[in-house]
Amino acid sequence: VEQAELYDAAQRTGVLEQLELRLLRGACELYQGLNQDSRAGTWPFLVSLSTWQLRRRDFAIKVADLLQRHEMPGTRLVLGLEEGGLLDVLEGATGGFSVLRELGVEFDILSFGAGYQRLGRMAQCPIRFASLPDDVVHALPDPAAMATVGTLLATARGFGADVLAGGVSSESVIEHLSTAGVVLGHGPALAPVVREAEFQTLVKALPSG
Asked: In 83-195, which residue ranges form alpha helices assigned H by DSSP?
């Protein structure tokens, strides 16, 4: 079965919605389990979603219900969406997007720069992070990749967003990202993969702020 066919089937049957709501519920439960000082912090819970969910107002209402039931401020939730899909949602002015924006939910643009010709639309969106495309990160320190990082970093700053690098796999990549001005990232060179229980322990140990 092709990946696209599997994705379409999961979307049609509602399986995808349930999986993504489970991820969101997990983030809310983690927040609810924090001590009072950590709840008062500002560091976000980032959850990647499929863009089609935001085209549906009922999905956004379910997210709002999760936030309310777990007493989690929308400002602590960041939704990761592919750039092209997020731009499509913005241009469609969907009800779901409006509900989330009113709650204070922010966004992480995945593969930032892929829809460069339409970046002017991003001014309408509360963007917290802009994630560099994986192929750009993996190509470092190629001069063209370094130049692309510099361009995307300057563009993201224009939106008031922090740039995030994923798949950071070596000390060399860390050094080149730092040289370019990128200070946020994730990947095996920065932190190992951990089991769910250990992850919950790490989150609860995070300082406030």
From this structure: 83-92, 95-103, 134-139, 143-158, 171-180
Half-sphere exposure of residue 94: CA atoms within 13 angstroms, side-chain side: 21
pLDDT of residue 60: 85
Neighbours of 189 (CB within 10 A): 15
What backbone torsions phi and psi does residue 67 show, to the nearest 5 degrees? -60, -45
In angstroms, the CA 101 to CA 18 distance is 22
Backbone angles phi, psi at 106, to 5 degrees: -115, 175
Residue 116 scores a pLDDT above 60: no
Percent of the chain whose pLDDT exceeds 70: 82
Q: Which two tokens stand for residue 136?
A: 């750009």
